[in-house]
Amino acid sequence: MTERPALELRDLSYSYDGTPVIEGANLTVGCGEFVTVVGPNGGGKTTLIKLVLGLLRPDSGSVRVFGCRPEESKPRMGYVPQRSDIDPSFPATVLDVVLMGRLGKTRRFGMYTREDVDAAMAALVDVELAELPRRPFSKLSGGQRQRTLIARALASQPDILLLDEPTANLDIAMEQELYEILLRLKKRLTLLLVSHDLAFVSGFTDTVACVNRTVVVHTTSEVTPELINALYGRDVRFVRHDHLMGGAE
């Protein structure tokens, strides 16, 4: 029996107050693939993610995650939002934040089991924060906070991980650490990542989905300066991290 794709969009359209944002979009993501979504601001990238998550309902067309509607596949999806939904001053430890990812797995709010704690600790190992479970979230660096939020998503033990601009406001060193973590996760998860980092596109991902009202899919080798300039409507500096590409195997 052929395995169902991790994600299928068919003739997908969505409008805000009558203004089309996504029109006739088609995209297929196989299990284990790493797809990066790029495009200009306002082009529909975040809207696309919300449609996949079931946070929005399409005007027409369909979204299927592992062959099911998004609301039926929620337990199999992990999500890292563009902006943290946690007040940095909130008195929570790193482990407290990561355990939030287990709330859908437990029967009662706050009643964490040993299985929950083990899953949270395993997620911290994945993001290289295993030594900081008791560190206050407020005391973390920007990169550590982002990795904590990724661990929160991983704690739910998803089959597909969706990340919306995970490198926003991170410096180059922190970006590098995050990319290496995602490369390791690629070995066991399907990844769908929204990014403005075009260097990332050239060095790490399998496929590029260019979103600007519709979706056009390219292999990484097809992503050229000319294609990017056409997508964004202006000159964009295109940088390759070729020295990192060996790690993507």
Provide a descriptive summary of the structure in words.
With 249 residues, this protein is of the alpha/beta class. It is built from 8 helices and 9 strands. The radius of gyration is 18 Å and the shape is globular. Helix content is 29%, strand content 23%. It has one domain (7-248): P-loop containing nucleotide triphosphate hydrolases (Rossmann fold).
Distance between the termini: 27 Å
Largest sheet: 6 strands, mixed
Number of strands: 9
Q: What is the arithmetic mean of pLDDT?
A: 84
Q: What series of H and E elements makes up the topology?
A: EEEHEHEHHHEHEHEEH
Give the uncertain stretches in residue-range form: 235-249
How many domains, as an integer?
1
The CATH homologous superfamily is termed P-loop containing nucleotide triphosphate hydrolases
Radius of gyration: 18 Å
Count of helices? 8
| CATH architecture classification name | 3-Layer(aba) Sandwich
Query: Shape from CA axes?
Result: globular
According to CATH, the fold-level topology is Rossmann fold
Q: Strands across the major sheet, in which order?
A: 5-6-7-3-8-9
Structural class: alpha/beta
CATH class: Alpha Beta
Structure in a nutshell:
This protein is an alpha/beta fold and 249 residues long. The protein has helices spanning 45-53, 70-73, 94-99, 114-126, 142-154, 172-185, 198-203, 225-232; strands at 7-16, 19-29, 34-38, 60-65, 77-80, 160-164, 190-194, 207-212, 214-219. Helices cover 29% and strands 23% of the residues.
